[in-house]
Amino acid sequence: MKETESSSNGCLKIIKNQIIANGETYKVTSAFLVLLRALFEYIHLLEYFPTLRGSSASKIYELLRFYNSYALKLTLGKGACDSGQ
Question: What is the pLDDT of residues 22-34, one digit of tens each?
Answer without folding.
Answer: 888 999 888 888 8
